[in-house]
Structure formats: structure tokens, C-alpha cells
Description:
Elements: E1 7-9, H1 10-17, H2 21-30, E2 35-38, E3 41-45, H3 46-55, H4 67-73
Antiparallel strand pairs: 1-3, 2-3
Amino acid sequence: MNSDPISVDxxxxxxxxxxxxxxxxxxxxxxxxRSIKAGRRRLVLVDSLRAWLQSLPTEGLAVSLTPAKExxxxx
Length: 75
């Protein structure tokens, strides 16, 4: 049996993603991440949150394959 949750509350989604509460609400309002209402609680669908995070561009991953050549050129 899989113990990973299908949905989490807002504070947990913020901890999981590293997003601020206000930015998470903006993302939810824009429809990029799906959520549901359960009574008075807003629950974020974990698969939707993960998919959105994985779709974001990454920074700082450009790696030079020949750093010695760049050093000789004075780059």
C-alpha cells in the first residue's frame, strides 16, 4: 500500500515546494496547480503540484564541457 498522500493542506504544500503561502495561492488561482475544497479546507493535489514544479525552467545548470579552453581564452 502506498502511503504518499493524494492531497495536502496549504501549509504542507508550502513546505513540500518551498513556495510562500501567497505565491501558492496565486498559482492555484491561475490554474497551474489543481486543488479541491473539502469542507472549509483547501487541499492541493500533490501530483498537480509536482508536475507544475517539474515543468518550471531550471537555472544554473549550464555546464561548460571544456573549462580549460575557456580559461585559456580569458573568458
